[in-house]
Each structure stands twice: as structure tokens, then as C-alpha cells.
């Protein structure tokens, strides 16, 4: 029965973070104090963001994650339920607080973020084993690095061995990433900053992204996507090992926080529900959805629902 219940799940193993957003005219320099003009608290965490975006597009989703046994953790579980996300594998612990992120956004919509992972780091092997049937019956599983890398690697291994399509978002990036992350990733998706950390190559243009993507592809990924913010993304695959640049439409950004997660969540949705679309078309649609998200403030609060998007995206 459980396998049937999760036959369409986009399964994500990742953290939940309570976001503290401050809006300022510009980002402060080291040691500088400046005035902000708005402050608000919202829901975040890369995996949670990605799961919420996929769910709002119509995906049947579940989270494998851990939050604190505190008010933020309780709020997060309720938030998942309100977004029609399964909380069967959302665990609570007394041993750590729910993760938090401090975010500062300037008037151009650019941001800087500091996260304190908290309960995310306590997700463990036993938790994954409890979710094993859901993971093995998923269409797509996303992993990131806000939980311990060993747990993300274990989850990817479980999914990969069951033939589940794996989408790995190596964030926050680390230069000494275990080589198995590449070989276990059907789709390896990072932004330009993460690509620089992983390859030691400067990435400031689509051409640069193509060179970095080739390095990552040679490490064993099947598909590499490097996102470039407002410039779109670059695609490279084992099947077509020539970089393909996919631009996105220009919009007035209000807040870019979580735009990459909107993109990844949308991509997971298309991989699970529209597998016959070309990857290029999936990325064009994911670019569009991420561009919608930057035109509103906040992270999950900016993510669009299917009913608010053009019909030709579905």
C-alpha cells in the first residue's frame, strides 16, 4: 500500500530552515551597520523550498527531513501540510533546534545568506531506512548538502539502486565533494558560484559555464546544469556533450532569494510528470517559473502555483 501511495512522489532529503529576511538599500561591508527598511520571517531550507515549488506545480511530494521539537518545527510541519506535502518522514528531535537562515536582500534583489543547520544535521541512517519504500517508489529524488553529506550520499545510493531518477543540488558547495556524488547523479544542478568552488574555474559567462560543466561531466554525471541567475542556464549531457546555452526572459527582480530552489523544484516536477519533454524544454519552463518567483518578496511566499501560470507550461 505504501509503495502505491508514493508512486508519484518527488522525494527530497534535505533541511528545513526558518528564514529571517532583512531588506536593505545595499549589502553591508564587513564591520558596517546599516539601516534596513523591512524585516520578516518565513519558511526556507533548500530541499523544503524545492519540494514546495514542485508541490505547487501539482507534484505529489514528500520530505525526508528533521526539525526541532520547538515552535518553528511545529510551524514547519503545518506549512508542509498546507502545501499538500507528505510529513510522514518529517521527524522532530529534542536534541537540536530547527535550522535557521539569516538573509539580507538589497534593492536590486541580490542577497547574502548565513545558515545554521540545527536539526538538519541529525537526520540519520535509521530515518532513511524508515523512508526506504517511499524513496524506492519515487519518480525523482532531490538531495542537497544542508544535511550531512554522508546522509545525502546514502539517500542517493538508495534511490539510484532502485532506478529512481536522482537530481543532486550541491549546495552549500564544498570543494572536496565525494566523487560518488557525481556518479550517482542523473542530473547534477548547481549555480555559477557552486560550479567555481567545485571546479576552481571562474564562471562569469555562459562560455565559462560550459567549460566548468565539462569538468563536472567528466567526473561521471549524466547531465550537468549550471544556472546563471538572470542569464539563464547551461546544459551539458553525456548524450550531447556540447554545451547548450538556454537564456531566460528579463524581468525586474524584487528578491532573488530561493530562485535557484524554484528552478530545481520545477525541474523535478517536469522530470517526474513530463519525462518525454526534451531537457532543453524542461529548462526553458523551469527558467520561466524561477523568473516569476523573483518578482515577489520572500522565498516560498514568492513561489507560483500552477493555477497562476500560463497553460502552455503544462
In a few lines, what is going on in this structure?
It is found in: Cytoplasm; Nucleus. With 314 residues, this protein is an alpha/beta fold.
Topology overview:
Blueprint (H helix, E strand, L loop, with lengths): L1 H4 L3 E5 L3 E7 L14 E7 L1 H11 L3 E9 L2 H12 L2 E2 L3 E4 L5 E7 L5 E6 L8 H6 L1 H5 L3 E4 L5 H13 L3 E4 L11 H4 L3 E5 H8 L6 H13 L4 E5 L5 E5 L6 E3 L12 H15 L5 H15 L21
Parallel strand pairs: 1-4, 1-9, 2-7, 4-5, 4-6, 9-10, 10-11, 11-12
Antiparallel strand pairs: 2-3, 7-8, 12-13, 13-14
Labels describing this entry:
UDP-N-acetylmuramoyl-L-alanine:D-glutamate ligase, nucleotide-binding, 14 strands, carbohydrate metabolism, transferase, alpha/beta, globular, about 325 residues, 11 helices, kinase
Backbone structural class: alpha/beta
Strand tally: 14
DSSP strand content: 15-25%
What is the percent of helical residues? 25-40%
Q: Which architecture of the domain at 44-97 and 120-168 and 248-313 does the CATH hierarchy give at level 2?
A: 3-Layer(aba) Sandwich
Query: Mean pLDDT, as a whole number?
Result: 90
Name the CATH homologous superfamily of the domain at 44-97 and 120-168 and 248-313: Ribokinase
Cα(first) to Cα(last) distance is 29 Å
Shape, please?
globular
**What would the CATH topology of the domain at 44-97 and 120-168 and 248-313 be?**
UDP-N-acetylmuramoyl-L-alanine:D-glutamate ligase
- Uncertain segments are 1-9
CATH class of the domain at 44-97 and 120-168 and 248-313: Alpha Beta
Give the assembly state of these chains.
single chain
Instruction: Give the biggest beta sheet.
Output: 10 strands, mixed
Number of separate helices: 11
Instruction: Give the H and E element order.
Output: HEEEHEHEEEEHHEHEHEHHEEEHH
GO cellular component, one term: nucleus
Active site: 261 (proton acceptor)
Domain Carbohydrate kinase PfkB: 21-304
GO molecular function, one term: ATP binding
Amino acid at each position: 500500500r505504501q509503495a502505491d501511495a508514493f508512486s508519484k512522489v518527488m522525494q527530497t532529503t534535505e533541511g528545513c530552515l526558518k528564514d529571517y529576511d532583512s531588506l536593505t538599500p545595499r549589502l553591508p561591508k564587513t564591520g558596517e551597520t546599516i539601516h534596513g527598511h523591512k524585516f520578516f520571517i518565513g519558511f526556507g531550507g533548500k530541499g523544503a523550498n524545492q519540494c514546495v515549488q514542485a508541490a505547487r506545480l501539482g507534484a505529489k511530494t514528500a520530505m525526508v527531513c528533521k526539525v526541532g521539537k520547538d515552535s518553528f518545527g511545529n510551524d514547519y510541519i503545518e506549512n508542509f501540510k498546507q502545501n499538500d506535502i507528505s510529513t510522514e518522514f518529517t521527524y522532530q528531535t529534542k536534541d537540536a533546534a530547527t535550522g535557521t537562515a539569516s538573509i539580507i536582500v538589497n534593492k536590486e534583489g541580490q542577497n547574502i545568506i548565513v545558515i545554521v543547520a540545527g536539526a538538519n544535521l541529525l537526520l540519520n541512517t535509521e530515518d532513511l531506512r524508515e523512508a526506504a519504500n517511499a524513496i524506492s517508489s519515487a519518480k525523482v529524488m532531490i538531495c542537497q548538502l544542508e544535511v550531512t553529506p554522508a546522509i545525502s550520499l546514502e539517500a542517493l545510493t538508495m534511490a539510484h539502486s532502485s532506478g529512481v531518477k536522482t537530481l543532486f543540488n550541491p549546495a552549500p558547495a564544498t570543494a572536496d565533494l565525494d566523487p560518488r556524488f557525481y556518479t550517482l547523479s542523473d542530473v547534477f544542478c548547481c549555480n555559477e558560484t557552486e560550479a567555481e568552488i567545485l571546479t576552481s574555474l571562474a564562471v562569469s559567462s555562459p562560455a565559462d559555464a560550459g567549460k566548468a560543466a565539462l569538468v563536472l561531466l567528466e567526473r561521471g554525471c549524466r547531465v550537468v546544469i549550471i544556472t546563471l541567475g538572470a542569464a539563464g542556464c547551461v546544459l551539458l549531457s553525456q548524450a550531447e556533450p556540447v554545451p547548450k546555452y538556454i537564456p531566460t526572459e528579463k524581468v525586474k527582480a524584487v528578491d532573488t532569494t530561493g530562485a535557484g530552489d524554484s528552478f530545481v523544484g520545477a525541474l523535478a516536477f517536469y522530470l517526474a510528470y513530463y519525462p518525454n519533454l526534451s531537457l532543453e524544454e524542461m529548462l526553458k519552463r523551469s527558467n520561466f517559473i524561477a523568473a516569476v518567483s523573483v518578482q515577489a518578496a520572500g522565498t516560498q511566499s514568492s513561489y507560483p502555483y500552477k493555477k497562476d501560470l500560463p497553460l502552455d507550461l503544462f
